[in-house]
Structures are given as structure tokens and as C-alpha cells.
Amino acid sequence: MILRQLFDKTSSTYTYLIADSRSKEALLIDPVREQIDRDIQLIEELGLILRYTIETHLHADHITAGGFLRRRFGSKTVTAARAGANCSDLFVEHMDEITIGATTIEVRRTPGHTSGCVSYILRNREQIYAFTGDALMIRGCGRTDFQEGSAATLYASVHEQLFTLPDHTIVYPGHNYKGMLSSTIGEEKQFNPRLKISNNKEQFIEIMKNLNLSPPKKLAIAVPANQHCGLDPDMRDQQQEELSNIGLYRIIDVRTPEEFTGALGHIEGAELVPLTLLTERAVEWNKQKALLLVCHSGERSNKAYASLKDMGFHDITTLKGGMLAWCQQKST
To answer: What is the 3 state secondary structure string of the chain?
Structure first.
């Protein structure tokens, strides 16, 4: 088995890459849109076949990369049936199983932080791993004051579905804000200040009621985006044969200068605006002008699309497959 724990500093989110060593089939738990290049590079370096991207819940603090990875690898997006993401390819229920090669992951419903939270349990020989999302974190847990959250429900979920696992089970949470990587069920039962065994349900409810937390900064953006697997529902990508009216677009090439003048060349009339400079340059652009975004293979243009949408641009199209597809089409 291959297991990698990856981290996004901005949202303090852990993403987990799990793969079957023999078949090379893989899945990602809670991928983050801003880290898509990192994840793609690792998958390709290890020669893996991405079969699934699976979510522990509908996130309010970051946007998933599931939709973009589906476009890139043909992977299936997976959420709980009650999470509210109708964009998903596969909806899982309690005790369902997800299989990659000879590796099987068990789904357990653990609502409370949100009504659609699930945890994933992986058994590898004698070791058990629990990927708990925001239901159980290291010495903490997810808040319960929005997205149909319930402190009473979360208490029951953790005590009935997670604390019943063996004490040596390794806990891999969805977040950590203090630099801790993992814990165990035994540790959390003893030391978690909110959920430890010595706290009864009424004590836990009182603790959660008095947290007085501010809303997540990305709540208004992240939840709607994650309901569409991280993709804007109006997002368009087109192939060369569909661009008969290409002259109507302002063509923005977000590659590097070396790529723009390199072997693949560039589309006539395209403007070079490297992705690293995009938001700075776009401040002065006409938001009513139709834009066509171009890169090497489509990955950076997807990121550019997301950035421009956040800035208020609406009429945006990406060139499917980027300059690789453009040049292949030209040569046939």
C-alpha cells in the first residue's frame, strides 16, 4: 500500500493519497483545488491510476479539486449520499466499500459537523487507519453550528462509529492547526478535551455551544463551489473544432514565455499572461469581453478560470486539452 499525507497551508487541510502497490490504482481524500498541480505531479511521478476523489463532507473552508481531477484523469468523484453534491459520480452510504486493487476502504456515516459527514476506515494487515475529516480531529473536532450541524449527533457519531475502533487505530484528520500529523483512537478517547470518554453528551453539547466561532472566511464561496465538485456550473471548455468564432474571444495564454515561443507555439492573436501574473494584469480588463484561456494541457487554464471568476469575470471559456490538443488537431 502507498499512503501519503499532503497539506494545504492556507486552509490547514490534509489531503490523503492512497494507492494499491500492485495495481497502481489510487484515490485522493479531500483534494484541495489550489494544490491540484502538486497532486497531479505526485500521481504521475508514482505512475498511479487515479480512480476516485472522495470527500469526507461538503467543505466550507476550501474548494475541492475533485471536478478538475475528473477532467484530467477520468476519476470518479465520491461523496456521501446526504452531502448535497449532486455533481458526484458515486454516492456512498454507511458501510459501503470503495475498492482500489486489493485495497478496500469502508465508509462510516459520522454526521454532526455537517449532516453529510463520513469517515473512511482502511485496514492494512494489522494496522487500521481512520480518515475522519472534521468529525474527529487531534484533540478537537469540527464545529457544529452550521450546515445542519448538531453537537448531539456528532457526539453519537464519534462514540459509536470511531471510538469503537481498536485503540491502536491511527487517526488521520481533515485538518490540524498546530502542526500535529496524526493521533490514535486510544489517545483521543483519553485526551481529547471535547470528546474524551469521561465527558458525557451534555458536557460536550455545552462545550460546543460556547465556542463562539466566527464563520469560515470562504463559507459563501466554498459551499456552492463544492456542491458542483469545485467546478463552476457555467464553466465551458471547448475543442478546436468548436471554436469557429474564435475571433470573438480575447485569447489569454497563461503559460510561461519559454512555452509561448517554444515547440508548441501559440494561437495567432493570443496574449501571453503567465498564470503568476494573471490576477495583477486582469484588474484592468473589460469584464464583459469573452475570454478564451489557453495553457499546455488544460490544468493551468482551469486554475486561471477559477481566479477570474472570483474577480467577477463571467464569459470565460477554456481550450480543452490546451496547446497539446490544439497542435494534435492541426496535424491530423
So the answer is: CEEEEEEECCCCEEEEEEECCCCCEEEEECCEHHHHHHHHHHHHHCCCEEEEEECCCCCCCCCECHHHHHHHHCCEEEEECCCCCCCCCEEECCCCEEEECCEEEEEEECCCCCCCCEEEEEEECCEEEEEEECCCECCECCCCCCCCCCHHHHHHHHHHHHCCCCCCCEEEECECCCCCCCEEHHHHHHHCCCCCCCCCHHHHHHHHHCCCCCCCCCHHHHHHHHCCCCCCCCCEEECHHHCCCHHHCEEEECCCHHHHCCCCCCCCCCEECCHHHHHHHHCCCCCCCCEEEECCCCHHHHHHHHHHHHHCCCCEEEECCHHHHHHHHHHC
Structure confidence by residue, pLDDT tens digits, 129-143: 999 999 999 999 999
User: Which pLDDT tens digit goes with each residue over 31-87?
Assistant: 998 898 899 999 999 999 999 999 999 999 999 999 889 878 889 999 998 898 988
Domain that holds residue 242: 236-331
Are residue 187 and residue 302 in the same domain, yes or no? Answer: no
Residues 151 and 205 in one domain: yes
Q: How many domains does the chain have?
A: 2
